[in-house]
Amino acid sequence: MTGPPVVPVVRIESLDGQGRGVAHVEGKTIFIDGAAPDEVLEYASYRKKPAWEAAQIVRIEKEGAARIRPRCAFFGKCGGCSMQHLDEPTQVAVKQRVLEDALWHIGRLRPETVLRAIHGVPWGYRHRARLSVRYVPQKGGSLVGFREHRSRFVADMTSCEVLPPRVSGLISPLRALFGSLALRERLPQVEVAVGEESIALVLRVLVPPGPEDLERLKRFAGHHGVQLWLQEAGPASARLLWPLDAPPLYYALPEFGVRLAFGPTDFTQVNHLANRLLVRSALGLLDPLPGEKVSDFFCGLGNFSLPVARRGAVVLGLEGSAALIARAKANAVENGLGDRCSFQTADLFDAAACARLPASDKALLDPPREGAIELVKSFASNPPRRVVYISCDPATLARDSAVLVHVQGYRLAAAGVVNMFPHTSHVESLACFER
Predict the structure, then answer these.
(1) 411 and 334 in one domain?
(2) Would you say residue 253 lies in a domain?
(3) pLDDT tens digit string along 82-111?
(4) Taking the model in full, what pTM does it have?
(5) Number of domains within the chain
(6) Beta bridge partners of 126
(7) Is there a catalytic annotation at residue 81?
């Protein structure tokens, strides 16, 4: 007779960059979902490779001090969050270590000063979200939410703790609305954009709604006090459905007396409070002075450009999207800063285009995940004396930092993390370079 299978027991040594527990068994690394530091637990592997395994918890023998009770009823099934079981100081410490490890292992760099982490609010912070929609008759109709953990299925959820309460409260009504539409199987996504005074929902529709669907959609918008937009192709195709007199979306940076209008499919920072703190910190590092020339690369709709101009500097904003450049110009005029801001489109991933950029006293960069390698290389000919770099990927930040320091002669004066996405493994960071 054979006994019951042996379930391995391990102690969690640390957390990796995705918030998974890390343990070692006979020289093999085990990554365990949902674990906390110093826990002793039993695990079962769901993926095995020669050097590592991915696993899930079977039973916790001893809980770690950092473990807390997840606030969301769907945590673990929904893949939107991976760290709700950890207290916020532990989450931030994990992200700080991910940043410092990337800077050292990729760039061979350590910052002279580690900046204090920037925190917003841990719940109800997500002012932008892209929710999947799927009609599943077996589940009673349409599902609306994030993808399930380790799956392409849509999580069967009725609320979300990281969405603003008003948006979370719309999930169940949206499920009922979408399930009632004739085009319910041709509606794969709803994008949420929250402004200071209004909420926009952009429905990705693969076929135009018929008259009955249009009436249902308009009644929903009126009843719930939201804007409904229809998007039949790419983001630029989004058009307002109802109400026709909907006020423009905007967010405010009160410290700088700035309001920034945006469209529901424009790129904006997800976390409004964290963004306010990020802008304050970035400008503190940049220290723009009246009359200085400042280049704001990947400027978007003017999130950093307008506060820099408010400080008296002369700003040139550069961005690859013509639509965002138009939005930035309009925002500058609306805020009375048109005389201190100019904006132009530029391919900041093209070496030749970067080589033609004008010189500036200081520069601010906020690139996408790809980083800004061609741009930082171009600083060899016209180096700003100070560079502030906002990053959403520690690996590309570390790569670009190595060029700035080891090739261009800058020093990494400071770096730290921004907890822009609490309860997730996403690492936003801020770095300052000086010559």
Answers:
(1) yes
(2) no
(3) 999 999 999 999 999 999 999 999 999 999
(4) 0.94
(5) 3
(6) 271
(7) no
